Amino acid sequence: MTITGATLDINVDMIGNQNLLFGPVVADSSDYDLIITGDSNEIDWNIGDTGSADDSSIQFTITGDSNTFDLDQGFALSAERLDADLVLVGNSNVFDVDWESDDLVWNFDITGDSNNVNTLQKDGEQELNLELTGDSADIDINQISGTCVSGAGNSCATPNAHITLDITSDNSVIQINQKDSANDS
Q1: Fewest C-beta in 10 Å: which of 8, 11, 21, 33?
Q2: Smallest Cα–Cα separation from 122: which of 139, 138, 141?
Q3: Residue 81 clears pLDDT 90, i.e. is over it
Q4: How far is the first Cα of the chain from the last one, in angstroms, to the nearest whole number?
């Protein structure tokens, strides 16, 4: 699957088990709404790996167990202004999420046990809000600040990285690494 365009509204409803969604997406000013209900589904999505992906809004609503996700936005080219939301209800899900996007808000709400999340926020101003209710989670949060996005209406003087956690859990491991583009902190 390859999707290329601008100002796209992409809605994907996956119902059932062992579904696959793979492929690159190049799209500015686009909204993504993925609703997934089922177990053992796999998603490997690269947004903006080979072209621009500015002004994105991504909503994931997932109910199920043992799902695997590898999500990337940005990387080689431009990805500015991303608002990403994840609501997950389920156990033993694995997420590897790399947002290389200037001016990023990443909200995720996880309910369930033994979920594994590895997330990278890289470049620009960043905000991460995590609410976790469940035991035995393994969560790695990496924030690397970078540059402010230029343009009209930009209030960023210095890129900041913010993390807000609301955790109700036993036996979970949460590791946070924050650094600026030049120095480890």
Answers
A1: 11
A2: 141
A3: no
A4: 40
Contacts of 184 (CB under 8 A, 6+ apart): none
Q: Does residue 56 register a pLDDT over 90?
A: no
pTM: predicted TM-score of the whole model, two decimal places: 0.85
Q: Which residues contact 85 (CB under 8 A, 6 or more apart)?
A: 58, 59, 60, 107, 108
Q: Please give the Cα distance from 71 to 73 (Å, whole number).
A: 7
DSSP 127-173: EEEEEEESSS-EEEEEEE---PPPSTT---SS--EEEEEEEE-SS-E
Positions of E strands within the chain? 3-6, 9-15, 20-28, 31-37, 42-47, 56-63, 68-73, 80-89, 94-99, 102-111, 116-122, 126-133, 138-144, 161-168, 173-179
